[in-house]
Amino acid sequence: MPRGGAAGQLFDYRHNEDNGYGDTEVSRIPNDCIEFGGRTYIQYTSVFTWDPPAGWDGSLMSGVAYSDDHGVTWHDYPYHWPGDRLGANQSMYGMWSFAGIDNGHLYIFSKRWNGGHKNTADGGAIQLFRIPPDEFRAGNFGAQENWAYLEGRWQWTRDAGPSVILSGNNIGEFSVKRIGGTWCMSYLDVADYSICTRTAPRPDAVWSAPKVQIVGNGSWPVSHWGKPQLPFLYGGYIHPGSAGPTSLTLIVSQWSSDANRQTTAYRVLQYDGINP
């Protein structure tokens, strides 16, 4: 902090206790943030356990909190999306990315929670929905429209839930942002141990093939040759102020570089000039 000391906890809740949401919360992990209309929004996952059994994601719920004073104080919307512990294991609403506002809609991509990178059922599936910004601000999340394959074609609809638009290797933290008219995506490919990017001309268009940008330590397949290497990497978030769609800034998280956290501190690194 500018005057010394550690940053305070954003949300008012107790760790490793039942805060009135049905069971114990170990932690609340932010997934993405957006600001519009003078209000700041964070979507988060409430973690029940970091070490769930195989086939379970370990979440309690997910929710959205907002701040009207630029992050000084936060308020939770009353609606929450149930997670693993509340009977909705593998919910596709566990982890969101706010992609941006276009043509009167806020576009949101979401996927299963994979915070521990141990979700054996993840499969890398991602879905897409949208909602008018005013409805989102009011907490009327039921106003969402879903990008779904229905009656033999892709369409925006409220008659069905969102369909999976992408799948593949397990995907950890991900990020989607509209940069200079191009929709850009980055994510941790857990199986490949790399940060990959993709692009599309519209959020509901076909996405390009994955492009490896930054790699972890370990094996070196041909696709990793010549790429920047960062051991113990994860995340790979697109900075919304990136220079342009062919010059992204990625903010990449790095966990401590050995099991005892002795070599380096937990940190994030900034990579500029990334062409997705």
Structure description:
The chain has 1 helix and 19 strands. The protein is mainly beta and 276 residues long. Strands 3, 4, 5, 6 and 7 form a 5-stranded antiparallel β-sheet that branches. Strands 8-9-10-11-12 form a 5-stranded antiparallel β-sheet. Strand 3 (27-36) and strand 4 form a beta hairpin. The longest helix has 5 residues, at 133-137.
Can you lay out the helices and strands and say which pair or pack?
Elements: E1 17-18, E2 24-25, E3 27-36, E4 39-47, E5 59-67, E6 75-76, E7 81-82, E8 95-102, E9 105-111, E10 126-131, H1 133-137, E11 145-150, E12 153-157, E13 171-179, E14 182-189, E15 194-200, E16 211-215, E17 233-238, E18 248-254, E19 267-274
Antiparallel strand pairs: 1-2, 3-4, 4-5, 5-6, 5-7, 8-9, 9-10, 10-11, 11-12, 13-14, 14-15, 15-16, 17-18, 18-19
Q: Secondary-structure element order, as H and E? A: EEEEEEEEEEHEEEEEEEEE
Question: What is the count of DSSP helices, taking H or I runs of 4+ residues?
Answer: 1
Which stretches of 5+ consecutive residues score pLDDT under 50?
none
Q: Averaging pLDDT over every residue, what do you get?
A: 93
Instruction: Report how far apart the termini are.
Output: 34 Å
Radius of gyration, in Å, reads 18 Å
β-strand amount: 35-45%
Number of strands: 19
Give me some keywords for this one:
276 residues, mainly beta, five-stranded antiparallel beta sheet, 1 helix
